[in-house]
Design a protein that fits this description.
alpha/beta, 7-stranded mixed β-sheet, 10 helices, 245 residues, Rossmann fold
């Protein structure tokens, strides 16, 4: 049986290597042919089983591209969306196909992605309530530590709100305190020493280092949801960017 990785960016390439390490027959497909693994254009994939979708979640035609590939791969059994997507996306795909659609966001730092994917529990979700026990076992064989969430929207929001946006919020507070320290003429690191023992004992006073929030996770993921309350993260980051200049 064959696992297919659709989208060979950082996430897709890392998943390909993970499955390769665990002796699963895999192919990697990408619009850039130089990134494809064990695949050439219009190749018929033998015994397809799992399609791992790792396309950029912000693509406006993400749903259509995914559905197009589902229709092209005959006898496909399961689709797993690993991309960070707008909440409701996975359910929208499921409503348009009979193939089982799962959502399983990735976690980890990009420079050590493979190690982190092995380390963290892989949360998996479905809007279908009766999952074949064989599929559950298949997933354990691929990811070892797995846990299930009750709906795909729960997991979609977990990735955005509890992972990247929360991280951004913590950086925001470091940005605010850094700007205040500069205004008041005091040392940022000396002031934050006050939290060291509290954090050691309670675990709820983490010191974050201020910096401009860039990259392709925190702000882009925040753009996938529409809540005015969270726009403050962007505004504080923009204020800090001006402060740094």
């Amino acid at each position: 049986m064959t696992d297919i990785i659709l989208g060979m960016g950082e996430v897709g390439e890392t998943l390909f290597h993970l499955l390769e390490e665990r002796n699963f027959d895999s192919v990697g497909i990408d619009i850039d042919s130089s990134k494809c693994k064990n695949y050439f254009e219009n190749q018929k994939i033998v015994n397809p089983e799992y399609l791992h979708v790792c396309l950029p979640g912000e693509l406006p035609d993400f749903v259509d591209i995914t559905l197009n590939w589902i229709s092209k791969i005959e006898e496909l059994k399961v689709v797993i969306v690993h991309s960070t997507v707008k909440p409701g996306t996975t359910k929208k795909i499921q409503e348009k196909t009979k193939v089982l659609i799962l959502f399983s966001p990735v976690r980890g730092v990009h420079r050590r992605f493979l190690d982190d994917i092995k380390k963290y529990t892989k949360f998996i979700s479905s809007d279908e309530k009766n999952i074949d026990p064989k599929i559950r076992l298949d997933l354990e064989n691929r990811f070892e530590k797995i846990d299930w969430m009750s709906t795909t929207k729960t997991a979609e929001l977990a990735k955005i709100l509890v992972d990247t946006t929360y991280y951004g919020w913590l950086i925001n507070y470091a940005q605010i305190t850094k700007m205040i320290c500069e205004k008041e003429g005091i040392d940022f690191d000396e002031m934050w020493k006050f939290a060291d023992e509290i954090h050691k004992n309670l675990g709820n006073r983490p010191k974050m280092y201020p910096g401009i929030i860039g990259g392709h996770c925190v702000i882009p993921n925040l753009n996938l949801i529409d809540y005015d309350e969270l726009d403050m993260i962007k505004k504080i980051n923009e204020a800090y960017e001006k402060f740094e200049k």
